[in-house]
Structures are given as structure tokens and as C-alpha cells.
Amino acid sequence: MEPIQVQNLIEQGLSGARVQVTGDGSHFIATVVTAAFEGLGQVKRQQMVYGTLGDRITSGAIHALSIKAYTPAEWEKASKLKIS
Q1: pTM of the entire predicted model
Q2: In the list 4, 41, 61, 74, which could disulfide-bond 70, CB 3.0-4.6 Å?
């Protein structure tokens, strides 16, 4: 699976999210920024992202996924501090 495919799935599942995905075909890093994360903890945010990928994790199409999940305000602050 290509990073752009993973990115598209997340974007389709989380309408309005800004998503960037890098990876090597089975191991991926996703940075996801959306207002839908407001008031949620990291575990719930990650569950939301995993939920957009359907069975691609259990089938092995995606072997590993690291998720960095931010609200727009958190992303703005992280960007100023050069954290990604």
C-alpha cells in the first residue's frame, strides 16, 4: 500500500482533516489535524484514525502505523515549536 492511499482513506473517513502520511509500503507515519479531535484524548483520536482504515491493518496491508493526532490549535502550537 502506498502512503497516498493511506492518506486518502484517512481524509475520506475524517472529513475536513489535514493529513500527511509517509512510509515504506507497510510501515507508515500519519500526521492528522482536525477539529474533530477537540476534547478527546490521544487514545480516542487514534481509534478514530484506525477506524478510517477498515480491515487494512488486520489484513496486513498496513503492518504498522504511527499516528500523530492534533487539533488545529495544537498543530499551530507544535508548528511554532517545530514539533511534528
Answers
A1: 0.92
A2: 74
